[in-house]
Amino acid sequence: MALDTLTLKGTSLNDETNYALEALDLTPPPKKPEWAQSSDGDGSDLVRTPLFENRTITMTLRVMPQASKDAALEKVGTLADLLQEAEKNPDGIALVYKPATATKEFTFYVLTGAITAIPMVNEGSSSGWYNAHAPQLNISLTCKPFGYGAEVTGAAAKTIETGLSTVVLTVATLAGDVPAEGRLVVVDTAAIGRRYVEWGLEQRYYNSETALILDNESMTAVGGAPSEAANTGAYKPSGTKGTIATTLLTEPTICANTGNLKHIGTFRVKCRVQAVLGEGSMAEKVHVRLAYQDGEGPLRANDWQSPLLGGKFVEVNLGIITLTTALKGTQKWLGQIEAYSENAATKDVLHVDYLTFIPVLEGYGKARGQQSNAPGTIVAFDNFSTGTLSGNLNTRTPAVGAAWATSGAATDWTVETGKAKRATKSDAGPRWGVLGAAVGNSAITAVLRTTLVANEKLEAGLNVGAILRWVDSNNYAFARLSRLPFVAGLNIECNVGVKVAGVVTFLANSIAMAPLSVETYTATIDFEALVDGSMQATFKAEGRSVTLAATSSAVATGGALASGKPGVFDEAGAPTSSRLVESVSVSQLGAIPYCVQPSRTMEVRNNATIAADSAGTYYGNVPAYRGSRFYVPQDGSENRTSRIIVKADRNDLEAADQQTIADAFTAECKVTPRYHVIPR
Hints:
Elements: E1 5-8, E2 11-12, E3 19-25, E4 31-32, E5 35-37, E6 44-46, E7 51-52, E8 55-63, H1 69-88, E9 93-98, E10 106-117, E11 136-143, E12 147-148, E13 152-159, E14 166-171, E15 178-188, E16 196-202, E17 213-215, E18 220-221, E19 225-227, E20 243-247, E21 253-257, E22 265-276, E23 286-294, E24 299-301, E25 313-323, E26 333-341, E27 349-359, E28 364-368, E29 377-382, E30 405-408, E31 414-416, E32 419-422, E33 431-434, E34 442-451, E35 463-472, E36 475-483, E37 492-500, E38 503-510, E39 520-529, E40 534-541, E41 544-551, E42 565-571, E43 579-588, E44 601-605, E45 609-612, E46 619-621, E47 624-627, E48 631-632, E49 642-649, E50 665-675
Antiparallel strand pairs: 1-2, 1-9, 3-8, 4-7, 5-6, 8-11, 9-10, 10-11, 12-50, 13-50, 14-49, 15-44, 15-48, 15-50, 16-28, 16-49, 17-27, 18-21, 19-20, 20-27, 21-26, 22-25, 22-27, 23-24, 23-26, 28-47, 29-43, 30-33, 31-32, 32-43, 33-42, 34-39, 34-43, 35-36, 35-42, 36-37, 37-38, 39-40, 40-41, 44-45, ...
């Protein structure tokens, strides 16, 4: 006769040679519902899907007749040792159960257990201790709530959607009666690394007729119009329309709408846009938002957002929308993209490229490769407190690093105790000063003090700042503070840019630092440039702080500015007074904080989000992750399908541009079914 099989960490508990199973209770663990009760309503409502208590499994086990009592006692001792072992393992030990003649089995994980009774009687069903050297044991096991099946592939590895660094997976069949533990496996096949990975999952309201990507050709232009201008890098999945372009006014206008769509559920809406700025315009003064109408309900508007960078394609987070099921008739909702500019009317143009709808209700997560706050290795430092404290800055030996080398506009900095000073009234170009050796991944902190003349209109601006990747006067990256020309008051502009082959390109700018309330101010510039092409600068002055981010292929490995020296620069504008460099500190930074290393793997799991190192031999936590654990709902009696969208971008989209959108990667979904009641 076929027997149920029960195996505890490889030891059979029903082989009828060592042990025989006489009774087994696998009663499912109780749910832990959380209720919300209203004082003016009947009953209570569930706050969320209930969780479960641990499972208690009890059994009556017979030690089969042994040659001696000592041999029987040894069998009891083996069981006691196994239960002790369970307590030493955070995830417990495996208890595998397979019903007789069944093809399915599932595994419980025993966290602790005890032999609760050893009857010692001469007759009856509990006898055996004295007569046959076959003790009967009562055992109680405390286990994780569920039984587990074997891991299977829920959705095979799939490459990106055409033209986008995005993969959409569907899981059509999944056993179990509670959501499965999952592994979302992301592999960088383009060998460029990823600093931003985002995913979302939907099931209950999944509709194959709805898309999670809506390109501009599927939208309706309202205040805007289809455009091909300034659209290098635009998403064109099937046609020639690059974007929907809207010339912005100082009052909000509708750029485009989505038309009636059929989504149901809660989604985070992302929009890829490009703000082409007029002369003197600032990116932070361009504003865009999503307004939406759920069915025939009122039009709701999310908060205004500003594109991170002017002139670059960036991803803007337009916020959360919740779309309810139609009570009768055809499901519908409509969204519209609205925008305006605080800059002068008709100067700025907003290009809308495409929308991404990321489900968030049933599963959502985001990994970011944020730069570590850990210090790098100091490779150059000078606070003008050591060595010769007089004369010109050129050839001065700093406290750490190779000597200063200055060039450019006439009149060098002069060194004094605690500072290097420059006081020329008008320059035809910058004066540059660099120190130390050429480095790649690097950061500089420069403390600068400047005295400005307030409330005078200037014919030329004052420019001071920090340098990284200096090759020569025609090739370097910079973070700059500028006094705006032709403007009264202490109006200060912050810039990040590069100069390559003599051509200056401003990549990010802001006037959020202006106006300062004092004529003499001390500014600190923290500027870093990494070998993936990303740069970030934080400007601090008089209690204000501005952070700008940018990317440039010139700064990336293989670019014209792949490595270079650090330093500072100064360019006077009349009638300004003295500018001081008080300290300069340069660090060589560690490796790029990728979520997915080039050609390597990242996994979002039910208990962690991990990534392989650059060699592929070690897995550890990603630099930063926020969101839910990765569980995939079972298909159930309704045979529901789960859909998962995965985005993996080379840049940290919350701090840099989204110029490149078609870097190849693959994503697949592995699942381990879980059972509350029985395997089926």
